[in-house]
Amino acid sequence: MISAGPFPLMALLALLALAVGWFFARALTPVAEGMRSRAGAVVLDAFLLGLLGARLAHVGLHAGDYLAQPLSIIRLGDGGFSIWAGLLVAAAYALWKTRQRILRKPVLLGLSAAAALWVVGGMALFALQRSSIPLPDAVLVDMQGQPAPLAAFAGKPAVINLWASWCGPCRREMPVLAQAQQAHPQVQFVFANQGETHDEVAAYLSAEKMQLGNVLLDADSRVMQQTGARALPTTLFFGADGRLHDVHMGELSRATLEARLRAMQ
Fold it and tell me: Where are the transmembrane segments (predicted)?
């Protein structure tokens, strides 16, 4: 998984794009009292408002999913943004704030540089991620003690959830994944427990009355090693061709999970 420590690189790329846009806007603004500071402030405000607009637009488009878990609307780390809505909001705000035309050109050029870096960089990272993470070939163990190669799940869309019973976010998202497994029989859900014993996993499933299919034991955390996952929970979305379509690090909401499932089918 492409990340820097616990931080997905897309988030770091967004911050880098903001820094580039801020620098460009200031550098291109004529030297005058307070003008460069104002240009930088407009870029920063446009970025934040664009982020808010992108989130609200995404929530509006998937309102039915979010109504089931209203608090997930404010969990920005869960993902879910409408890129084009965010760009439109940022551009509209920048045009409104730069009615004094001496600022308009540098601000718009700065925002354009930031958007270009974020879009092109994101496409490059996604292409690298897809090419670097095939469906893992690890052989795990099922709850009956039998070998369970992950290669057996090739040929159909597969969602591999890396989890552990001691992990709070894993426990919170598990009911969402369990419901999705029942609602999407055309998708193979695999729950690859990382580093725990059979008794620990069985005790958790029993205590939570969790009915899950394809619960597998990965005592040596081989899947985490093969995929480069940095934290739990991590959910990997593979297409029928065995190629990675998406990765989510952290707790999944129903809305984000449903959006990812629609995108991969």
Answer: 6-28, 40-61, 73-96, 108-128
Neighbours of 213 (CB within 10 A): 12
Measure the CA–CA gap between 227 and 247, rounded to whole angstroms: 10
Q: Residues with Cβ < 8 Å from 68, sequence gap 6 or more?
A: 254, 255
Where residue 155 falls (left for φ over 0; alpha for ψ -120 to 50; beta otherwise) is: left
Residues 101-113 have pLDDT tens digits of 778 899 999 999 9
CATH of the domain at 192: 3.40.30.10
**Nearby residues of 44 by Cβ (< 8 Å), 6 or more positions away:** 18, 22
Strand runs labelled E in 176-265: 188-194, 215-218, 234-238, 244-249
Task: Write the CA distances from 209 to 214, 215, 244, integer angstroms.
Answer: 16, 14, 31
- Same domain for 127 and 178? no
pTM (predicted TM-score): 0.71
The parent domain of residue 254 ranges over 139-264
